Amino acid sequence: MRRVLPLALCIGALVTTASCGDGNNNVFADAQWQARCPPGVAGCSFNGDPVDVFNFDGEEDEETGKTTVARCSVVDSGETRIIGFQVGLGTGAGDPQLSGNGLTTGIDGGRVGGSGCTISVRDDNTIYTGACGANEPSAAQPCRVGPIVIDRDAMDGPEMLIPIECRELPSPSGTAVPPRDITFPMMPTQPANLRLINCDI
Description:
Blueprint: H1 7-16, E1 28-36, E2 51-56, E3 68-77, E4 80-89, E5 97-106, E6 109-113, E7 118-123, E8 126-133, E9 143-145, E10 148-151, E11 159-161, E12 164-169, E13 180-183, E14 193-197
Protein backbone atom coordinates (compact mmCIF):
# COMPACT_ATOMS: atom_id res chain seq x y z
CA MET A 1 0.00 0.00 0.00
CA ARG A 2 1.36 3.43 -0.96
CA ARG A 3 -0.05 6.65 0.45
CA VAL A 4 0.97 10.19 -0.41
CA LEU A 5 2.29 12.37 2.40
CA PRO A 6 -0.31 15.02 3.26
CA LEU A 7 0.69 18.59 2.46
CA ALA A 8 0.24 19.53 6.12
CA LEU A 9 2.93 17.06 7.16
CA CYS A 10 5.37 18.50 4.65
CA ILE A 11 4.60 22.01 5.89
CA GLY A 12 5.36 20.82 9.42
CA ALA A 13 8.70 19.52 8.25
CA LEU A 14 9.50 22.85 6.60
CA VAL A 15 9.41 24.55 9.99
CA THR A 16 12.52 22.71 11.15
CA THR A 17 14.23 21.66 7.92
CA ALA A 18 15.17 23.10 4.57
CA SER A 19 12.59 21.10 2.62
CA CYS A 20 10.22 18.13 2.67
CA GLY A 21 11.66 14.88 1.36
CA ASP A 22 15.19 16.11 0.64
CA GLY A 23 17.20 13.60 2.70
CA ASN A 24 16.86 15.51 6.00
CA ASN A 25 16.75 13.86 9.40
CA ASN A 26 12.95 13.72 9.63
CA VAL A 27 12.37 10.06 8.82
CA PHE A 28 8.79 9.28 7.82
CA ALA A 29 7.20 5.86 8.30
CA ASP A 30 4.22 4.45 6.42
CA ALA A 31 3.71 1.03 8.02
CA GLN A 32 0.82 -1.34 8.68
CA TRP A 33 1.01 -4.66 10.49
CA GLN A 34 -0.83 -6.98 12.85
CA ALA A 35 0.28 -9.77 15.19
CA ARG A 36 -2.12 -12.66 14.56
CA CYS A 37 -2.77 -16.11 15.97
CA PRO A 38 -1.29 -18.72 13.62
CA PRO A 39 -3.84 -21.26 12.38
CA GLY A 40 -4.01 -24.32 14.60
CA VAL A 41 -1.75 -23.02 17.37
CA ALA A 42 -3.14 -23.93 20.79
CA GLY A 43 -3.39 -21.30 23.49
CA CYS A 44 -3.65 -18.31 21.16
CA SER A 45 -7.12 -16.89 21.64
CA PHE A 46 -6.99 -13.37 20.16
CA ASN A 47 -5.21 -11.37 17.49
CA GLY A 48 -3.30 -8.21 18.28
CA ASP A 49 -4.71 -4.82 17.34
CA PRO A 50 -3.93 -3.59 13.81
CA VAL A 51 -1.14 -1.00 13.82
CA ASP A 52 -1.00 1.90 11.35
CA VAL A 53 1.97 4.27 11.47
CA PHE A 54 1.88 7.26 9.11
CA ASN A 55 3.94 10.18 10.36
CA PHE A 56 7.36 11.69 10.94
CA ASP A 57 9.55 10.47 13.79
CA GLY A 58 8.71 12.30 17.01
CA GLU A 59 5.34 13.62 15.83
CA GLU A 60 2.10 12.91 17.70
CA ASP A 61 -0.19 10.34 16.10
CA GLU A 62 -3.61 11.91 15.52
CA GLU A 63 -5.65 8.83 16.42
CA THR A 64 -3.79 7.54 19.47
CA GLY A 65 -2.04 10.67 20.73
CA LYS A 66 1.16 8.67 21.04
CA THR A 67 4.57 9.67 19.77
CA THR A 68 5.50 8.25 16.38
CA VAL A 69 8.72 6.23 16.22
CA ALA A 70 10.31 6.18 12.75
CA ARG A 71 14.03 5.47 12.66
CA CYS A 72 16.42 3.78 10.28
CA SER A 73 20.12 3.07 9.91
CA VAL A 74 21.98 2.29 6.70
CA VAL A 75 25.58 1.08 6.51
CA ASP A 76 27.17 0.66 3.08
CA SER A 77 30.16 -1.52 2.30
CA GLY A 78 31.04 -1.70 -1.36
CA GLU A 79 28.01 -3.10 -3.17
CA THR A 80 26.37 -4.27 0.07
CA ARG A 81 23.92 -2.34 2.21
CA ILE A 82 22.95 -3.28 5.78
CA ILE A 83 19.65 -1.83 6.97
CA GLY A 84 18.10 -1.46 10.40
CA PHE A 85 14.79 0.16 11.35
CA GLN A 86 12.40 0.83 14.21
CA VAL A 87 8.79 1.97 13.78
CA GLY A 88 5.92 2.20 16.22
CA LEU A 89 3.43 4.26 18.19
CA GLY A 90 4.63 5.29 21.63
CA THR A 91 7.76 4.47 23.58
CA GLY A 92 6.28 2.57 26.53
CA ALA A 93 6.80 -1.10 27.29
CA GLY A 94 3.30 -1.95 26.06
CA ASP A 95 3.29 0.17 22.91
CA PRO A 96 3.37 -1.56 19.50
CA GLN A 97 6.69 -1.65 17.70
CA LEU A 98 8.23 -3.32 14.66
CA SER A 99 12.00 -3.42 14.26
CA GLY A 100 14.60 -5.07 12.10
CA ASN A 101 18.37 -5.41 12.23
CA GLY A 102 21.03 -6.74 9.92
CA LEU A 103 18.94 -6.70 6.74
CA THR A 104 21.71 -7.21 4.19
CA THR A 105 20.89 -6.36 0.58
CA GLY A 106 22.42 -4.81 -2.51
CA ILE A 107 23.29 -1.15 -2.77
CA ASP A 108 20.12 -0.71 -4.85
CA GLY A 109 18.01 -3.10 -2.77
CA GLY A 110 16.74 -6.50 -3.88
CA ARG A 111 17.04 -9.84 -2.15
CA VAL A 112 17.75 -9.92 1.59
CA GLY A 113 20.55 -12.16 2.84
CA GLY A 114 23.13 -12.40 5.59
CA SER A 115 23.19 -14.38 8.81
CA GLY A 116 22.42 -11.45 11.13
CA CYS A 117 18.95 -10.54 9.87
CA THR A 118 16.36 -10.38 12.67
CA ILE A 119 12.80 -9.07 13.02
CA SER A 120 11.22 -8.15 16.36
CA VAL A 121 7.64 -7.18 17.14
CA ARG A 122 6.27 -5.83 20.40
CA ASP A 123 2.57 -6.48 20.93
CA ASP A 124 0.61 -6.13 24.16
CA ASN A 125 3.70 -6.14 26.41
CA THR A 126 5.15 -9.20 24.68
CA ILE A 127 8.14 -9.26 22.33
CA TYR A 128 8.38 -11.75 19.48
CA THR A 129 11.64 -12.13 17.59
CA GLY A 130 13.32 -14.38 15.06
CA ALA A 131 15.64 -14.69 12.09
CA CYS A 132 14.74 -13.23 8.71
CA GLY A 133 15.79 -13.69 5.12
CA ALA A 134 14.54 -14.10 1.57
CA ASN A 135 13.26 -17.67 1.87
CA GLU A 136 9.79 -18.90 2.79
CA PRO A 137 9.13 -18.64 6.55
CA SER A 138 10.26 -21.70 8.52
CA ALA A 139 11.09 -22.69 12.08
CA ALA A 140 14.71 -21.67 11.53
CA GLN A 141 13.78 -18.44 9.73
CA PRO A 142 10.27 -17.32 10.75
CA CYS A 143 10.31 -14.05 8.79
CA ARG A 144 10.57 -13.49 5.06
CA VAL A 145 11.71 -9.98 4.16
CA GLY A 146 11.89 -8.30 0.79
CA PRO A 147 12.76 -7.95 -1.88
CA ILE A 148 13.63 -4.44 -0.74
CA VAL A 149 12.82 -1.67 -3.21
CA ILE A 150 14.92 1.50 -3.04
CA ASP A 151 13.81 4.62 -4.90
CA ARG A 152 16.05 7.64 -4.38
CA ASP A 153 13.87 9.79 -6.65
CA ALA A 154 10.47 9.00 -5.13
CA MET A 155 7.90 11.80 -5.03
CA ASP A 156 7.99 12.17 -1.22
CA GLY A 157 11.75 11.77 -0.88
CA PRO A 158 14.19 8.85 -1.02
CA GLU A 159 12.29 5.78 0.13
CA MET A 160 12.63 2.10 0.93
CA LEU A 161 9.81 -0.43 0.61
CA ILE A 162 10.29 -3.47 2.87
CA PRO A 163 7.59 -6.18 2.83
CA ILE A 164 7.67 -8.41 5.93
CA GLU A 165 5.90 -11.72 6.54
CA CYS A 166 6.44 -13.78 9.69
CA ARG A 167 4.95 -17.17 10.49
CA GLU A 168 4.89 -18.46 14.07
CA LEU A 169 7.34 -15.84 15.28
CA PRO A 170 8.33 -16.99 18.78
CA SER A 171 8.66 -15.06 22.00
CA PRO A 172 11.89 -15.33 24.03
CA SER A 173 9.60 -15.40 27.09
CA GLY A 174 9.24 -19.16 26.59
CA THR A 175 6.98 -21.82 25.18
CA ALA A 176 4.08 -20.73 27.38
CA VAL A 177 3.63 -17.72 25.09
CA PRO A 178 2.08 -18.76 21.75
CA PRO A 179 3.91 -17.51 18.64
CA ARG A 180 2.40 -14.95 16.29
CA ASP A 181 2.10 -14.41 12.57
CA ILE A 182 3.01 -10.89 11.43
CA THR A 183 1.00 -9.81 8.39
CA PHE A 184 -0.91 -6.91 6.88
CA PRO A 185 -3.87 -5.94 9.14
CA MET A 186 -6.94 -8.13 8.65
CA MET A 187 -5.28 -9.83 5.65
CA PRO A 188 -3.45 -12.89 7.01
CA THR A 189 -2.06 -13.97 3.63
CA GLN A 190 -0.46 -10.62 2.83
CA PRO A 191 2.88 -9.32 4.17
CA ALA A 192 3.08 -6.36 6.49
CA ASN A 193 3.83 -3.08 4.75
CA LEU A 194 6.78 -0.86 5.60
CA ARG A 195 7.76 2.29 3.71
CA LEU A 196 10.53 4.48 5.12
CA ILE A 197 11.18 7.92 3.68
CA ASN A 198 14.28 10.09 4.16
CA CYS A 199 16.64 7.36 5.30
CA ASP A 200 20.23 7.94 4.25
CA ILE A 201 20.15 5.95 1.01
